[in-house]
Amino acid sequence: MEPNHHPPEPGGAPSADGHQSSLVLHINGVTQTLTVDHRTTLLDLLRERLGLTGAKKGCDHGQCGACTVLVDGRRANSCLLPAVAQDGRQITTVEGLAEGERLHPLQQAFLERDALQCGYCTPGQICSAVGVLAEVAAGFPSHVTPPTADPATPVELTDDEIRERMSGNLCRCGAYPRIVEAVREAAQ
């Protein structure tokens, strides 16, 4: 007996078989209308369906940060996000940070500071650092932010702040000192 397959309904509704939904994502400034299986993660959608291979599958458990992308400007581990739950969101991958041939300041700083070795974690590190700079500018405190810090002003970006805020992104090569330098340089 042939399985009962129905095309997805428009407008984000699940298909009649209940396993797929249509959704709209704004990825790196391009609007994409997609039909996605409910089990598909954002990471797998980006890499396997859209060819955006910057975000890497490291641990596939949200522990290493290699898959970090920006969702509505906030950093997130794409391996943990169901793609269908991102309907209507703005997704930025490392491929979407540069403006034409001009690299994003963090991409440029990582190159100039030699803040990478094998490069596997670098796209996630850079996307996370973009999120860090936005959090700092918005006054979001971290564990090491002094309790006397004014939440209405940007947080002072010390090396301890950078290390704390980037702690969810692992580098097996140990390029951490250069990563801190690159983030500090880009922040200036």
TrEMBL record:
Pathway: Alkaloid degradation; nicotine degradation. Keywords: 2Fe-2S, Iron, Iron-sulfur, Metal-binding, Oxidoreductase. This is (2Fe-2S)-binding protein. Residues 21-97 form the 2Fe-2S ferredoxin-type domain. The lineage of its organism: Bacteria, Bacillati, Actinomycetota, Actinomycetes, Kitasatosporales. It comes from Streptomyces platensis. InterPro entries: 2Fe-2S-bd, 2Fe-2S-bd_dom_sf, 2Fe-2S_ferredoxin-like_sf, 2Fe-2S_ferredoxin-type, 2Fe2S_fd_BS, Aldehyde_Oxdr_Iron-Sulfur, Beta-grasp_dom_sf. PROSITE patterns: 2FE2S_FER_1 (PS00197), 2FE2S_FER_2 (PS51085). Residues 1-20 are annotated as: Disordered. Pfam families: Fer2, Fer2_2. One of its GO terms (molecular function) is 2 iron, 2 sulfur cluster binding. Coiled coil: none annotated. Its EC number is 1.17.2.1.
